[in-house]
Amino acid sequence: MRALLDAVSLAIALLWLVPLLWMISTAFKPNPEIFRLPLHWIPEQPTLEQFWSSLRVAPFGRYYANSLFVGGLSTLLTLLFASMAGYAFARLPFRGRAALLGGMLSSTMIPFQVLLIPFFILMTALKLVNTPYGLVLAYVALYLPFAVFMFRAYFLSLPREIEESARIDGCSWFGVYWRIALPLARPTIAAVGIYTFVEAWNEFFVALVLTNRTATRTLPVGLALLRNDVNGISWGQVMAGSVMACVPAIIVFLLLQRQMIAGLSRGAVKG
Questions:
Q1: What is the rounded distance in angstroms from the CA atom of residue 167 to the CA atom of residue 162?
Q2: Is 55 in the same domain as 4?
Q3: Can you give the C-alpha Rg of the chain in angstroms?
Q4: What is the CATH number of the domain that holds 125?
Q5: 87 and 212 inside one domain
Q6: How many domains does the chain have?
Q7: Are 100 and 201 in a shared domain?
Q8: What is the pLDDT of residues 67-84, one digit of tens each?
Q9: Domain limits for position 179
Q10: Tens-level pLDDT at each residue, the chain (271 residues)
Q11: How many CB atoms lie within 10 A of CB 18?
């Protein structure tokens, strides 16, 4: 049975790797090779021209800076708000706690495409369309419910004796959260942080609706709108840009995958 599960997992992993490997292969092919039949995986004349030409056609430096700012700030705000809310839901008795938590978690069942028009109307009223701060607010609203659930589950798994001792010594609830609970939640911080950053880095639809200027676009939108004035869409340039866009997210995941798995496991102990 274990061998069968391993074989199925390997097959699924290989299936997911096929588009990634083809993207990398295409990025290093000259234009005549991309559409040559029969298709071949290994470039016969590998070149970096697609990377240089994509950098000339589109301002990838600006796209990178926008994505890093939006993803980084969204991650920091989500971690801050979710950790405080998760601790409050786990430890503080207040009226309507169950109803408020249920209402927050039920929002995750709504497809986020349904929220695009309300997000646009709200950001227009706040004059945050075509600004990175509008994207940050939208991403925090999208990813906060899941993050709150993760932190609440982790804080419920902590022994109450440590917190009760701190309370007896005169520590406030915020002091217990900041000095004791939050440092112990490092695995969950890593898991939620990686999840939020990668999701914000890769998100497309909200960024497409809320930004229509080159100066405010993020990487996914910039790649989707990548055009060549002569040939229209150049798939070699698109694949090269996609490879450059994937590198930061892959590096972050590979460096912190152990912490992410540990955080997801610890956060799933109690619900």
A1: 9
A2: no
A3: 22
A4: 1.10.3720.10
A5: yes
A6: 2
A7: yes
A8: 999 999 999 999 999 999
A9: 48-267
A10: 778 888 888 888 888 888 888 888 888 888 888 877 787 788 888 888 888 877 777 788 888 889 999 999 999 999 999 999 999 998 888 888 888 888 888 887 888 778 888 888 888 998 999 999 999 999 999 999 999 999 998 898 888 888 888 778 788 888 888 888 888 888 889 889 888 998 999 899 899 989 888 888 998 888 888 765 445 677 788 888 888 888 877 777 777 766 666 655 555 444 4
A11: 10
The verdict on 245 and 192 lying in the same domain is yes
Q: Hey, which residues does 232 pair with through a beta bridge?
A: 228
If asked whether residues 54 and 23 sit together in one domain, one would say: no
Would you state the structure tokens that stand for residue 18, as one six-digit string?
């096929």
Cα–Cα distance for residue pair 104/13, rounded to 1 Å: 33
Same domain for 238 and 202: yes
Q: If you write DSSP's letter for every residue of the chain in order, what string do you get?
A: -HHHHHHHHHHHHHHHHHHHHHHHHHHTS-HHHHT-SS--SS-SS--SHHHHHHHHHS-HHHHHHHHHHHHHHHHHHHHHHHHHHHHHHHH---TTHHHHHHHHHHGGGS-GGGGHHHHHHHHHHTT-TTSHHHHHHHHHHHHHHHHHHHHHHHHHHS-HHHHHHHHHTT--HHHHIIIIIHHHTHHHHHHHHHHHHHHHHH--HHHHHH--SGGG--HHHHHHT--BTTTB--HHHHHHHHHHHHHHHHHHHHHHHHHHHHHHHHHTS--
pLDDT of residue 133: 92
- Single pTM value for the model: 0.82
Q: What integer best gives the mean pLDDT of the chain?
A: 83
Backbone phi, psi, residue 232, to 5°? 75, -125
